[in-house]
Amino acid sequence: QVQLVESGGGLVLPGGSLRLSCVASGNIFMINTMGWYRQAPGKQRELVASITNGGNTNYTDSVKGRFTISRDNARRTVFLQMNSLNSDDTAVYYCNLKTPLGGSFWGQGTQVTVSS
Fold this sequence. Notes:
The protein is mainly β. The chain has strands at residues 2-7, 10-12, 18-26, 33-39, 46-52, 57-59, 67-72, 77-82, 91-98, 104-106, 110-114. The strands form two sheets. Strands 2, 4, 5, 6, 9, 10 and 11 form a seven-stranded mixed sheet that branches. A four-stranded antiparallel sheet has the order 1-3-8-7, with no helix packed on it. It is globular.
């Protein structure tokens, strides 16, 4: 079993920044993809960014140039640095880990609210 614990969400002014962290524990394959998804009220959950254990990254178009995903494999942690935040970024952000065998694990989510 895999456990994911997110932290770093909160309330931020438009144009501000936040850094999300997600620590993984449990039976983790060394080869995996970790990512951040978000879900705004009334909308479907969407992929924000993902990163393989080798460091290959993928971003949804709306966050390119503003968000940066990174990971520390030794600490089993993935980060999401979010800059130039706007109201469209308001959502619950979820950490996800996918294994080569098709497993998919989720964190409990952390709220990000961008408002003046």
